[in-house]
Specification:
With 260 residues, the chain is mostly beta strands. 20% of the residues are buried. A hairpin with a 7-residue loop joins strand 3 and strand 4. It folds into 3 domains: 79 residues, Elongation Factor Tu (Ef-tu), domain 3 (Beta Barrel), CATH 2.40.30; 40 residues, no CATH class; 95 residues, gp9 (Jelly Rolls, Sandwich), CATH 2.60.120. The radius of gyration is 34 Å and the shape is elongated. The protein is built from 1 helix and 19 strands.
């Protein structure tokens, strides 16, 4: 099972029970708890070195210790027992602490290993991958993948640009973000930038338009849309000319490139 986080403190003072407890008590009051752990659970020992020595797993609020259930009494190889008022008690380490630390360290066996958690859940080892591979996810666990492989969509080293080939006037769709739209049209044609109300490109979206055909491609603003450009017109300069469109506001775009 998953390793639980426990609390530790280096300056905890030895204390005593403020009142006696039975073997099933889950609320324990101590005389003082200066420097004791707070937050997560921690181990305490009661009556150390006595026949009734017992370890408990508890949390603390002030001088009140709380065991979540009777299963948290008599842990770490000890048995739950009754203890008298004045019995010695203090935070301690348990075998589980050392064992879990040892488990974590020993799970890694080979140079390059990564530590992960399986479905049990339990700590497990992901052996180092082959040269040139990167860690990605299969949706549940980390796995090794090849740079540029399918499923590694944000691989900026080897990602191929996607083309959207058009043979007539065209209105942009949301899937065009990040693509190259090619306009292979023999006669004059338009590429329309739609309003945000119909196609909600996120601000910062960009795409490239390339005029492959002989027909001049005009970048046309849809209803309520503004396409700003340094040039007075937003017409691609000719065959093989290219321009980039960037969305800078809700219905505001900038065009730059081979425009006339």
């Amino acid at each position: 099972m998953a390793i639980a986080r426990r609390a530790f403190a280096g300056g905890a003072v030895q204390s005593t029970l403020a009142s006696g407890i039975t073997a099933t008590s889950t609320t324990i009051t101590v005389a003082a708890a200066t420097g004791w752990p707070t937050g997560a659970e921690f181990f305490c020992v009661i009556d150390p070195g006595q026949a009734s020595e017992e370890k408990i797993l508890c949390t603390r609020s002030g001088t009140t210790l709380t065991c979540a259930s009777t299963a948290k009494r008599g842990v770490d190889g000890t048995a739950a027992a009754s203890h008298n008022q004045g019995a010695i008690i203090y935070p301690c380490l348990a075998a589980a602490d050392a064992d879990e630390a040892n488990l974590t360290a020993s799970t890694l066996t080979t140079r390059g290993d990564l530590l992960t958690m399986n479905s049990s859940p339990a700590l497990t080892r992901l052996a180092v991958g082959a040269a040139g591979t990167v860690v990605t996810s299969d949706g549940s666990d980390p796995v090794w993948g090849t740079v540029g492989a399918a499923g590694l969509a944000d691989d900026v080293w080897a990602k191929k640009l996607t083309l959207n080939a058009q043979t007539a006037s065209y209105t942009l769709v949301l899937a065009d973000a990040g693509k190259i739209v090619t306009m292979n049209v023999a006669s004059a044609n338009t590429l329309t930038v739609p309003p945000n109300s119909s196609v909600a490109f996120p601000v910062g979206s960009n795409l490239t338009v390339v005029q492959i055909g002989a027909g001049a491609t005009t970048l046309t603003a849809g209803v309520g849309v503004t396409v700003n450009s340094f040039q007075s017109q937003v017409v691609l300069s000719g065959q093989w000319a290219a321009a980039t469109l960037v969305k800078v506001g809700t219905d505001s775009w900038v065009a730059f490139g081979n425009l006339s």
